[in-house]
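Thread amino acids onto this structure.
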């Protein structure tokens, strides 16, 4: 199996240096490119096509969230892990809406960071403990605004929501469940209507907060 190829983007050189040294100690992960700005990260993504892009939120040119959006336009299947000191519901909303795979804090332990990179490379969603707690609080706030309870979903709708929250594409969900992509979209749409989710990001928040996701 080929090693996981990682792009690191952080505007602080010393942070990139520390992260690169940490990651390069892993036999199955290689840092293939480093960027100090959002624009540079996008250019490097184009040329290197890494398996995982690890981005800081605060960067020149484009912040990490906008950088992720631009990368996902280039490659909708891009695996992106946000590594930052920023917390707060607004940041979390933007990260989820952008379709970013993971959001962990810079004070995360080294082994947890490496594990997060491996999980994101495998298509899973990853959140640090602080972010998972905030995610639950965000869901509670959304629930007060109209999201319904989990028991309103059918078994199949629950399965689809869980698989989507785990980072699977429509085609992958269809293959796992042995149904057509059109049927997957139908179940996704029905689930979103039942819980009052306006977009897939809210469906993911719902699945995670109800422990449907295995991430």
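Threaded sequence (215 positions):
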């Amino acid at each position: 199996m080929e090693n996981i190829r990682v792009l690191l983007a952080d505007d602080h050189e010393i942070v990139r240096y520390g992260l690169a040294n940490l990651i390069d100690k892993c036999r199955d992960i290689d840092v293939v490119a480093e960027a100090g700005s959002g624009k540079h990260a996008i250019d490097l993504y184009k040329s290197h096509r890494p398996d995982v892009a690890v981005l800081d939120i605060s960067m020149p040119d484009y912040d990490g969230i906008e950088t992720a959006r631009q990368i996902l336009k280039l490659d909708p299947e891009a695996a992106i892990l946000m590594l930052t000191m920023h917390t707060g519901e607004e940041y979390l909303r933007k990260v989820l809406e952008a379709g970013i795979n993971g959001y962990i804090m810079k004070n995360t332990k080294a082994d947890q960071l490496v594990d997060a990179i491996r999980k994101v490379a495998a298509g899973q969603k990853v959140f640090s403990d602080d972010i998972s707690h905030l995610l639950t609080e965000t869901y509670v706030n959304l629930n007060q605004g109209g999201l319904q309870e989990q028991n309103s979903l059918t078994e199949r709708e629950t399965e689809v929501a869980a698989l989507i929250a785990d980072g699977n594409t429509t085609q992958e969900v269809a293959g796992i469940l042995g149904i057509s992509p059109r049927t997957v979209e139908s179940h996704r749409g029905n689930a979103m209507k039942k819980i009052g989710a306006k977009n897939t990001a809210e469906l993911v928040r719902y699945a995670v907060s109800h422990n449907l996701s295995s991430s």
